[in-house]
UniProtKB/TrEMBL annotation:
HAMAP family for the chain: UPF0102 (MF_00048)
Residues in the signal sequence: none
UniProt cross-references to SUPFAM superfamilies, sorted A to Z: Restriction endonuclease-like
Name the UniProt record assigns to this protein: UPF0102 protein CUR86_14785
InterPro entries reported for this sequence: Restrct_endonuc-II-like, tRNA_endonuc-like_dom_sf, UPF0102_YraN-like
Family, similarity comment: Belongs to the UPF0102 family.
Organism expressing this protein natively: Salinicola acroporae
Database matches in Pfam families: UPF0102 (PF02021)
Amino acid sequence: MTAPSNRRQLGQQVEQAAARWLEVRGLTLVASNQHAKGGEIDLIMRDGDNLVFVEVRHRRRSDYGHPAETITPAKQRRIIKAARFYLHAHGLSCPCRFDVVGVTGSLPALEFDWIRAAFDAY
């Protein structure tokens, strides 16, 4: 089993790789690892006029399901709550969406699956 600090470091490396991958596809990184009471947002990016809140999920293998399948309704609610906090704290009122990037593989050979508008705020 991987030690917690190593898992955290791996998570940060995968999130950074996902951010670079999304930047190549036209998004611009605004912030990463934004914490709010009750939730965290992995990446906040711009896609034109849209502010995009991105959840990055990684699994080395997808034998037991795709990484994106691990985002439960409870996790979605925490992300939405954190996004609302971020918007309020920064005085922003703009179109937003919630994307998911499922990442499989091991560094440096990662595969990315980008799901735009994976879920909606309710």
